[in-house]
Design goal:
- The chain is built from eight helices and 93 strands.
- The protein has 1516 residues and is mainly β.
- The strands form 37 sheets. The chain has a five-stranded antiparallel beta sheet with strand order 15-13-89-88-87, with no helix packed on it.
- It is elongated and about 195 Å long.
- 15% of the residues are buried.
């Protein structure tokens, strides 16, 4: 048991462990599976990149959002995604700022050619094209940096402007086939019996475009019909063919002439030779040696069919050379490249602005012979600092300005009239100027802060337009103080009512300031005047009377109760105790007349005072009166005497002398110790101030007639102040910029005898000194001579002696018959070295740079043969003899100017007269108009200042409103005279009568107050009555007073409201006769007895300027008047009494536009001549607009440049002659040379210039590109294929759609092709070439099919261009007309043929018989048309000649009814008679048959209608 237990326990343990292990493995696999699944289920997502933020330039950063998402779309933690694959969320970028706008721009290239767009599911151009096809065209759009044109990312430019489109839809014309001209005529065949070909050619008119068919063959050949050669005559011709020269090669070493005739060592002096064989060919370290070798060519005899033949068949005299001397080609040798220079940019905006660096190499030896010329000696490449930031940012430049200078009216008026300079107090519109300059701005590293260097720099460095250097301004015009009229004198008052001890007071009057003074030293005049007076009072009783109360009964004496109110000097009611010192009136005696008493009227008002003041000679007085209204009855109280009916009293008894305070002008603002404490507490606005000061003035008491008096005579309470605070303006020192950099001295070297070059610098005043500040310096410009200017080095070429003439080696020469002797043409060479100024050896490159082109190293030479004619060298010229004609020459060059007289017309401005004086005001009451004029004196011309708008009288006027006070003049009436009764009719002297009064017109003005003026000045419509009816009541009659005033109507007139007036009963009647009515009423009717009033404004006046101003700021006015509802203008006091609302604004500021003439800068210096030599050269100078014209100023001229002829210098230039024909050097065909001459000529550069040859030295160095004076050429041998010459350029043709041009530039073409001369080479000789070039001024051409007339159903069809040229190609094949005509069905009937309409017709003399389906059935002969013209109209074929075979067949047996003379034949009569008898017989027979039938039938059957039909059969 124990063993079993022991056995089971381990088993169970292993089983438990196994299960645990399996569970662990399972969990690990699940975890791995989950990890794998999670790796596939979670992915990173990113948003769009945001905008670049941060510092300007390459220090910006842009960000984007990055998040982890499940494949199903929901977002989770970042930890669930693989961190290794996490995208970046930030990257560096270039931050664009606003000031980058000046540095970058879009570069937009032109549109490329339009390309076809493929159809959906098809190829390009799959559909049939009618006029055009849809396409797309592209163009390059890039963002560039302006400075060095480097490409940057498009986002920088998109920050400022959207990217221009890079592609657009377009139209592609339909494919156009190649168009060629007609074939030329066939070339002529040879006259011999040799086999030959003749050919014809055509040229390309228009190339194939847009996928059109290519060009057909341009040549055609055919065999000539040559006769068979007779026996003994050659079938072929022979020509001597020379080949091209082979390469130049050195002779074999054994052929080198040790005597030195073959080779020259150029490294030695001209007298020494190299005799060491080939060792002399080794290059030397100093001058490069020239090796002379030889070259050969083949000479063959060719037959006319192209095959070679024996040379003896072509031998001629002289035999062409097969060898010649030549120069061994050696390429140009250069030195190694120098090290790269430093980068041209030491600053930059990040990595967007690379600079450039360069390196150089020199020439060690020049090219010899046909060696390669020297390559470029300088290389440039973009450079940066290895991707790092450049040391410092590049400077930026910006415009800066000084402060505006003072406004100057004279600058503006000088343009108009120099007379204005005489005026001192100029005002109004003017011009102020300022300095405009360019400064450098740098960015501090790491901080990106702008730091400004105020030193001025060249204005070309500042981008954009410069700020304005001048502007219009305004100098305020001085305005005098305007005051109102004096008020009336006030009562006699104590100076101080609070302390009124003493018996002395003052009466005062005052006036107000209407317009404050501007810009004048004089202040306003005194506003208060006073008069000393006695018994002054501050308060007074104002008494109003009550009704009269009798003592006993209804009439008789009594008392009138008075009501008194205490008022101060302002008219305000105050407490009664203030008037306690004055006697208070309480009652006054009065009397009511009884029935029998005399009745007297009330006293009239006191008349106006006769004088405004009292003097020794005159005193003021005034009067009042009363009149007798009713006579007394017996026993009644009698009337007073006449003297008792008037009263007089003195008035204005104060003296005419008055006193007032006068002040001196304020002193300048000065510092004061007392107000220094205020400076710390008071903040003054406005101009920059440096504290508060004080101003003082003196005050005097003045007497109106005698001047200054003691101050006690003037009221102390209104004494003006003598001290006031003021602002102390700060001192302004002069501010100038630092001196600019010295102008650069020239870096290029100067010749030793050149004049000294100077450099300069300047500075600019930014702020002028003011208020006692430091003054500006005197020196604003400095100049000095340049130092250390390099002097150009001096180099020269040294030429050595020519070597001996070098010939072709003997071994080569002896192989050719007739060339055994060592003579003939060869080459000789020389050494050329470069020497410095001090005759030291120098580099070849130095001489090429400073001494011009290298002298020639090789020239041709001649060793005469034995039999040659030789000459000695030329001797010197003999001296001229004096006994014969002799000539000598001299030369001069043309210099100086061609002067042309010209006139620049001066502008003349419009001139007007001075202003006339103002006219009187058009209205005597209320608002009116006053006018002044000026008229035209001279019209403008030549661009002068234009005139203002003139009227028909050539005048310009100015109107301003004016106002005349309506009460300037008023009617004054004297009292009515006593009522005058006509005593003749009335013995009682009572009843109705007449009374009169005097009326006069007086002035109400203060200075002329009360003076009588002519009656015409007063309003005639308001003249008072001078006569009226009156009543003098008889005794015992009821007596009433005069009517009182009508009561006032309300402000709004209402007819329902009545206006009343009353009168009182002064005496009752004795009898019972009633008294007259005591009151009257009438309705308030508008514009009859009731009026409404309103303020009325005139229109604005013109802008009024100061007296010395011509333009600028001014004021405009409008006037206020009171208008009655019936339209009458009345005194403004009526509107004021009603307290109507006044319009506020009666004056406003305005501006009169200144007539500013265009201001131009000074003329620039004359430019360089447009031509370096010759006539016709022009020099230009210009000027710019400093201030544009404004208003009616003189406009700017259209032409801001002037041209002038240059000094004429002779032109020396190399003239290339025409190419010569191909020279074969002795042969008849083969390879040769074309040559042309290069001549130095002098001319004047004009189109019609004649050029004359001169010495070559005058033209200087040979032209490098056009110095090709030889070209290889070839002349084809008989039997050879050869290219033709180019055809002429075709006319310029545009690509057009429906007659409208599709493009701006056209095309023209030319072509050439191979010509076959031998039938044997016909197959191997083919090919053609075409060239196309753009052209301008092209035309649109149409291509149309043209046809000839039909001839036997055949015609010619060809294509023709719209200008009449016949071409091949160009016309659409689908529209080509038929060339052969066919009838369907074919015309097989006798005498029929196919007509031009494609239907069958009959020949002449036959008419068509047609079937019902429209086809020809047969042709029927027309009678009588054998020899005559038929008069039967046939369908077709009238003019067809009767020549068909069918006509000949039937002609013999056809029936002819006419004789040849046109008469009917006899058989026709016989047939006609027989036919008549047969008809009679048939009629008779029918009659008999019908008769028998009628007798037998009872009901005849119904007959069917007879129908005739034609079935087309000929037997009908």
């Amino acid at each position: 048991m124990l063993l079993q237990q022991n056995w089971v326990s381990p088993h169970w343990a292993w089983q438990s462990l196994g299960k645990s292990f399996l569970l662990f493995v399972f969990l690990m696999l699940q975890t791995a599976d989950l990890e794998a699944r999670r790796g596939h289920q979670f992915v990173w997502k990113t948003g769009h990149w945001g905008r670049c933020v941060g510092d300007c330039g390459s220090g910006g950063v842009r960000s984007r959002a990055v998040w982890c998402t499940h494949v199903e779309g929901w977002t989770t933690y970042h930890a669930n995604c693989d961190q290794k694959d996490k995208p970046e969320s930030q990257r560096r970028c270039f931050k664009v700022c606003d000031w980058h706008l000046e540095l970058f721009e879009w570069e937009v290239l032109g549109w490329e050619r339009c390309g076809l767009v493929p159809f959906a599911g098809g190829e390009v151009g799959a559909r049939a094209c009618v006029t055009a096809q849809h396409g797309l065209q592209h163009r390059s759009v890039r963002c560039l940096q302006k400075l060095n044109r480097t490409i940057v990312t498009n986002e920088i430019c998109e920050y400022f402007t959207p990217q221009p489109p890079a592609e657009q839809a377009c139209l592609v014309p339909c494919p156009r086939d190649c168009v060629v001209s007609e074939f030329s005529s066939w070339s002529e065949c040879g006259t011999g019996c040799a086999k030959s070909l003749q050919h014809r050619m055509r040229a390309v008119i228009a190339p194939p475009l847009y996928g059109g068919a290519p060009c057909p063959n341009l040549t055609e050949s055919r065999a000539c019909g040559a006769p068979t050669c007779p026996l003994g005559e050659e079938e072929h011709t022979y020509s001597l063919r020379v080949g091209s020269w082979g390469e130049c090669q050195l002779p074999h070493p054994k052929d080198v002439d040790l005597a030195g005739r073959t080779m020259q060592d150029l490294s030695l002096d001209s007298g020494e030779r190299s005799t060491s064989g080939l060792q002399g060919y080794k290059p030397h370290h100093r001058p490069r040696e020239v090796e002379i070798g030889y070259q050969t060519r083949q000479v063959r005899c060719v037959r006319s069919d192209g095959k070679n033949a024996a040379l003896s068949l072509c031998m001629q005299d002289p035999v062409p050379l097969t060898f010649k001397s030549c120069v061994i080609a050696k390429d140009c040798e250069t030195s190694e490249w120098s090290a790269w220079s430093a980068c041209s940019r030491t600053c930059g905006w990040g990595d967007l602005a690379p600079g450039f660096r360069s390196r150089h190499r020199g020439v060690r030896s020049v090219a010899v012979g046909t060696g390669k010329p020297c390559p470029e000696l300088e290389e440039r490449e973009a450079c940066s600092v290895g991707g790092k930031e450049l040391p410092q940012p590049c400077p930026r430049f910006a415009w800066r300005t000084s402060e505006w200078k003072a406004c100057q009216v004279s600058l503006l008026l000088d343009q108009e009239d120099p007379r204005y300079q005489k005026h001192v107090d100029l005002c109004g519109g003017g011009i102020q100027t300022r300095e405009v300059y360019c400064v450098q701005i740098t960015v501090e590293l790491g901080m990106h802060r702008l730091k400004e260097v105020t030193r001025p720099v060249d204005g070309k460095l500042c981008l954009g337009p410069a700020p304005s250097a001048s502007q219009l301004c305004n100098v305020p015009c001085p305005a005098e103080c305007v005051v109102s009229a004096w008020s009336v004198w006030g009562p006699c008052l104590h100076e101080n009512c609070q302390d009124h001890h003493g018996g002395r007071g003052f009466r005062m009057r005052q006036r107000q300031v209407i317009v404050d003074p501007v810009g004048t030293l004089a202040d306003c005049p005194h506003l208060i005047e006073s008069i000393p007076c006695e018994d002054p009072v501050c308060y007074e009783w104002i008494v109003s009377e009550g009704i009269c109360v009798t003592d006993h009964g209804k009439c008789g004496p009594g008392n009138r109760i008075l009501k008194a109110v205490c008022k101060n000097k302002k008219g305000e009611e105050v407490s009664h105790h203030l008037c306690s010192e004055l006697p208070r009136p309480e009652v006054v005696a009065c009397e009511i007349p009884c029935a029998t008493d005399c009745v007297i009227s009330e006293w009239s008002p006191w008349s106006p005072c006769s004088h405004s003041c009292s003097s020794k000679n005159a005193e003021g007085s005034q009067s009042r009166s009363r009149s007798i209204l009713a006579l007394p009855a017996e026993g009644g109280k009698a009337c007073p005497p006449d003297r008792a009916l008037q009263e007089h009293r003195a008035c204005n008894d104060h003296p005419c002398v008055h006193f007032f305070w006068e002040t001196s002008p304020w002193s300048p603002c000065s510092e004061d110790v007392l107000v220094t404490a205020l400076n710390a507490t008071i903040n003054w606005s406005g101009e920059a101030t440096c504290g508060v000061g004080i101003q003082t003035r003196k005050v005097f008491c003045m007497k109106s007639s005698s001047g200054q008096v003691t101050p006690k005579r003037c009221p102390e309470s209104i004494r003006p102040e003598t001290v006031r605070p003021c602002l102390l303006l700060c001192k302004k020192d002069c501010v100038v910029t630092p001196f600019s950099e010295w102008t650069r001295c020239p870096t290029a070297c100067q010749s030793g005898n050149a004049t000294a070059v100077k450099q300069s610098r300047y500075r600019i005043i930014i702020q002028d000194a003011a208020h006692g500040g430091q003054a500006c310096p005197d020196t604003l410009y400095e100049e000095r001579e340049c130092e250390d200017i390099p002097v150009c080095p001096v180099y020269r070429w040294k030429t050595h002696r020519w070597s001996h003439c070098v010939l072709v080696p003997d071994s080569v020469r002896q192989g050719v018959p007739g060339h055994n002797e060592a003579c003939g043409h060869g080459l000789q060479s020389r050494a050329v070295t470069c020497l410095s100024e001090y005759d030291d050896s120098a580099d070849v490159g130095d001489c090429m740079r400073w001494a011009g082109s290298m002298p020639s190293l090789v020239q041709e030479c001649l060793i005469p043969c034995k039999d040659d004619c030789t000459f000695s060298p030329w001797s010197k010229f003999t001296a001229c003899s004096f006994d014969c004609e002799s000539t000598r020459s001299r030369r001069r060059s043309l210099t100086g100017y061609i002067e042309e007289s010209c006139t620049v017309p001066c502008p003349f401005d419009c001139k007007l007269s001075d202003w006339s004086s103002w006219s009187p005001c058009s209205s005597s009451c209320g608002p009116g108009v006053k006018v002044r004029y000026r008229w035209l004196k001279e019209k403008p011309y030549n661009g002068g200042r234009p005139c203002p708008k003139l009227d028909l009288k050539n005048q310009v006027y100015e109107a301003v409103p004016c106002y005349s006070e309506c009460n300037q003049y008023s009617w004054v009436v004297e009292p009515w005279s006593p009522c005058k009764i006509n005593s003749e009719q009335n013995s009682l002297h009572c009843g109705e009568g007449i009374q009169t009064r005097k009326v006069r017109c007086v002035s109400t003005a203060e200075e002329h107050g009360g003076e009588t003026v002519p009656n015409a000045l007063c309003n005639q419509a308001e003249i008072p009555d001078m006569m009226q009816k009156c009543s003098l009541y008889c005794p015992s009659e009821c007596a009433v007073s005069d009517w009182g005033q009508w009561s006032t109507c309300p402000q709004v007139c209402d007819p329902n409201i009545m206006q009343t007036r009353t009168r009182q009963v002064l005496r009752s009647s004795v009898n019972t006769k009633p008294c007259p009515e005591e009151s009257q009423m009438k309705p308030c009717i508008l514009n009859q007895n009731c009026f409404q009033y309103q303020y009325n404004l005139t229109g604005w006046s013109g802008c009024q300027l100061g007296a010395n101003a011509t333009c600028g700021r001014g004021e405009r006015h409008r006037l206020l008047s009171c208008r009655r509802s019936d339209g009458a203008t009345v005194s403004t006091q009526l509107c004021q009494r009603l307290r109507l609302e006044k319009p506020v604004q009666t004056r406003s500021r305005c501006v009169v536009a200144c007539a500013v003439d265009c201001q131009l800068s000074a003329w620039s210096a004359w430019s360089q001549c447009s031509h370096t030599c010759g006539a016709g050269g022009q020099m230009v100078r210009g000027r710019s607009v400093v201030l544009r014209a404004a208003g009616e100023g003189r406009p700017c001229p259209e032409q801001l440049t002037q041209h002038r002829s240059c000094p004429v210098k002779p032109c020396y230039s190399w003239l290339l002659g025409p190419w010569s024909p191909c020279r074969l050097q002795g042969g008849q065909c083969g390879d040769g040379l074309q040559v042309r001459n290069l001549t130095c000529v002098v001319h004047d550069a004009s189109d019609s210039a004649t050029s004359k040859p001169v010495e070559n030295a005058l033209c200087g160095e040979l032209p490098s590109k056009e110095s090709v004076l030889q070209l290889p050429c070839s002349v084809p041998c008989p039997g050879d294929c050869h290219l033709t010459e180019w055809s002429e350029w075709s006319s310029c043709e545009l690509t057009c759609i429906n007659g409208r041009s599709f493009e701006t530039t056209g095309r023209q073409s030319r072509s050439r092709a191979f010509i076959v001369q031998s039938p044997e080479n016909q197959e191997s000789c083919s090919g053609q070439a075409m060239e196309t070039r753009p052209c301008s001024g092209g035309k649109c051409y149409d291509y149309l099919w043209k046809t000839s007339l039909w001839r036997d159903n055949v015609r010619t069809v060809w294509c023709q261009r719209s200008d009449g040229m016949n071409v091949t190609g160009g016309c659409a094949l689908r529209t080509k007309p038929a060339e052969v005509r066919h009838c369907s069905p074919p015309c097989r009937k006798p005498f029929s043929y196919c007509t031009q309409r494609g239907v069958c017709g009959c020949e002449r003399g036959y008419t068509e018989i047609m079937r019902s389906n429209g086809f020809l059935d047969y042709c029927m002969k027309v009678p009588g048309l054998e020899d005559k013209k038929a008069d039967v109209k046939t369908i077709a074929g009238k003019n067809k000649p009767v020549n068909s075979k069918m006509h000949d067949i039937f002609k013999g047996w056809s029936i002819q009814p006419f004789n040849p003379d046109g008469k009917l034949k006899m058989w026709v009569y016989g047939v006609s008679a027989g036919g008549f008898l047969i008809i009679v017989f048939l009629i008779f027979t029918s009659y008999l048959m019908c008769k028998k039938t009628k007798q037998h039938q009872s009901t005849p059957p119904q007959q069917k209608p007879l129908t005739l039909a034609y079935d087309g059969d000929i037997d009908m």
